[in-house]
Design goal:
seven-stranded parallel β-sheet, alpha/beta, two-stranded antiparallel ribbon, 11 strands
């Protein structure tokens, strides 16, 4: 298959290696392209302080470093500049002007944070065990209520528009193997997933400069937290029914993640009825360029 990864993190945020090291690893693995997607800065606009987002002070350095890598690897590896942008209702999202005005090749929209109904505090659905359990307790340990909050935020992000790639669609399930807080086969959960697939289809039918595609993300498998990609088979079947195109990513946080478990992604996509995937070809006339290629 043709190898690429648009969801790549480096030491600018929570990755383990620098930009040059990731480029070299991608080239040695036979990649055609590599896109960087640091977690976009949050602190200045939201007050949230983390150790896994790009700092506001290093945004310009991140951009210049990736653009320099593009020059250095020209003719050997296509290098693209992106950001993974957290959607937090009223605080942050891909549609924010500060994001839209950056010279990005693409924007990945993601939901990590949801609000605890009891106190309004934010917590990350894919966070460390202690944080996750504390957040789940705020939903009275009701996995369906937590899932509803997650998918409501996700759908609102989609409706807000202005992102090119939708990240790890069912990330809310990341900790389910460990804590068993929800049943993905429950009709209520399936209804949420169906509504999100419908929301994506509606967004793609709208006249927009950024027509979102969905990533098949192997990051949970790469880090030993899930057995399936995001989204898993049920979600992919819903997307296939709506002819929503897919791009495979590793959500790479280290060089050895690049291309990791892509075979599992391909097999799951094939089981859902897909026979093709997308490759990014750069930003052209203000829009993301995509090439449809066979799954191999």
């Amino acid at each position: 298959m043709t190898y690429s990864c648009l969801h790549t993190h480096t030491s600018f945020c929570d990755g383990a290696a620098d930009v040059e090291t990731m480029c070299r690893a991608a080239f040695e693995k036979g990649f055609d392209s590599l896109g960087f997607s640091s977690h976009a800065p949050l602190t200045r606009k939201t007050g949230i302080k983390t150790n896994w987002h790009l700092s506001d002070e290093r945004l310009d350095e991140y951009i210049s470093t990736v653009l320099e890598a593009r020059k250095n690897w020209e003719g050997k590896l296509a290098v693209y500049l992106g950001l993974e942008v957290d959607y937090i209702e009223g605080l942050s999202g891909p549609a924010n002007p500060d994001i839209q005005n950056l010279p990005l090749d693409y924007i990945i929209g993601a939901v990590h944070y949801v609000r605890v109904p009891k106190n309004g505090e934010l917590f990350t659905v894919d966070g460390p065990d202690e944080e996750f359990c504390r957040g789940l307790e705020g939903f009275d340990n009701d996995g369906m209520a937590l899932s509803a909050a997650y998918y409501t935020a996700y759908n609102n992000m989609i409706r807000g528009g202005n992102c090119d790639i939708l990240a790890h669609l069912d990330l809310v399930k990341k900790n389910n193997d460990r804590f068993g807080f929800l049943s993905p086969s429950d009709f209520r959960y399936k209804k949420m997933l169906t509504e999100t697939a419908d929301t994506i289809a509606a967004a793609r039918s709208a006249d927009s400069e950024r027509n979102p595609v969905v990533e098949v993300n192997t990051g949970g498998i790469n880090r030993g937290r899930t057995a399936d990609p995001y989204p898993s088979l049920d979600g992919l079947r819903l997307l296939k029914e709506r002819n929503i195109p897919l791009v495979i990513t590793a959500d790479a946080h280290a060089p050895d993640h690049l291309g990791g478990h892509y075979e599992t992604a391909v097999k799951t996509m094939e089981n859902a009825g897909y026979r093709t995937m997308l490759l990014f070809t750069g930003r052209q006339d203000g829009k993301a360029g995509w090439q449809e290629v066979p799954l191999e």
